[in-house]
C-alpha cells in the first residue's frame, strides 16, 4: 500500500485487539506501585494488550523515561535525564518475581550523559533478577552505548541470555531516522558482543515502511549476518504522532512472510516478521538451548506450589 497525500490510512490487517483483563490491569498496577517504566507504554507498542493480558510478559525500561536522543521514529520523551536510581535493579527483580515471569526483556532509554551509557545498571539488573528469579531467562536491549568497549564488557560480564541491539533501518535512511546512532557502529556492537560471548544469541530488528527498497532490506540482512547476528525481527513502522516520520507504505502480511523466508534461507536461526512484530515480541521463543535447559531445571515457585513439573 503506497502513500497518497500527507496521511496513509492503516490497512485492515493492522487493527489491534484491545484486551484489558485482570492480568493486564494487574501488571499495570504493579508497574505504578514499583515506580517502574515499560517500553510497552512509553513507546506506544501495539502489542501491549497481547503481551500483558495473554502472554503475561513485559519489557522493563530502566534508567528513567527521558532519552538523550531524539530519534524521529520513537515516542519516548527526549531531554536531559534527571533520574538515576541505583535501587531500580532490585525493584525490577522484585516485580519479575511478583509477575512470575519466565522471560524478561530489559531495555533502557539512551543515556549519553553517563560515562558507561548505563551499562552498570543493566548489569546490576541482570544480577538482581538472577538472584531472585533464577528460573527466568533475561534479554537485554541497550543503546549502542556509543560503541564503548568497556561499557559492552561491563554489560556482558553479567551474562544475559539474549543480547539485542536494533539496527532500526537500512543504511541509506539511518541519518534521517536515527539520532546519534550510526549503522556501522550498531554492526560493530553486535559483532563485539558475539566475540565476547559466542554462545549468546544476538538479535537485531529493523522497521519497514520508511521508504527503503527490498534490495536494501536484503543488504541489511547480509550485513547483520556478516556481523554474526543470529536472530532478526522485521516489523512495520507505525507513526507514533504526526510529529514523527510519515509512513511511506504498509507492507502486507504476505510480504512479511516472504521476507521471513528469505531471512531464514540466508542463515538466520530465527526470524520474527509481521506487521506488528517488534524486537521483544515473542522474545521468550528465541532463547538459546543452554538458557532454556537452565530455565527448565529451575521451576518457578508458583509451579512448585501447584505441584506441576
TrEMBL record:
Supply the PROSITE patterns for this chain. Answer: RADICAL_SAM (PS51918)
For binding [4Fe-4S] cluster 1, which residues are annotated in this chain's numbering?
40, 45, 51, 280
Under the cellular component aspect of Gene Ontology, which terms does the record hold?
A: cytoplasm
Q: Which cofactor does it need?
A: [4Fe-4S] cluster
UniProt entry keywords in alphabetical sequence:
4Fe-4S, Cytoplasm, Iron, Iron-sulfur, Metal-binding, S-adenosyl-L-methionine, Transferase
Biological process, per Gene Ontology: protein lipoylation
Mostly located where? cytoplasm
Basic and acidic residues: compositionally biased ranges: 281-298
State which Enzyme Commission number(s) the record gives. 2.8.1.8
Catalytic activities: [[Fe-S] cluster scaffold protein carrying a second [4Fe-4S](2+) cluster] + N(6)-octanoyl-L-lysyl-[protein] + 2 oxidized [2Fe-2S]-[ferredoxin] + 2 S-adenosyl-L-methionine + 4 H(+) = [[Fe-S] cluster scaffold protein] + N(6)-[(R)-dihydrolipoyl]-L-lysyl-[protein] + 4 Fe(3+) + 2 hydrogen sulfide + 2 5'-deoxyadenosine + 2 L-methionine + 2 reduced [2Fe-2S]-[ferredoxin]
Can you name one GO molecular function term for this protein? metal ion binding
Q: In which pathway does it act?
A: Protein modification; protein lipoylation via endogenous pathway; protein N(6)-(lipoyl)lysine from octanoyl-[acyl-carrier-protein]
Residue span of region Disordered: 279-309
Q: Where is the Radical SAM core domain?
A: 53-269
Which PANTHER family does the entry link to? LIPOYL SYNTHASE (PTHR10949), LIPOYL SYNTHASE, MITOCHONDRIAL (PTHR10949:SF0)
Q: What is this protein's record name?
A: Lipoyl synthase
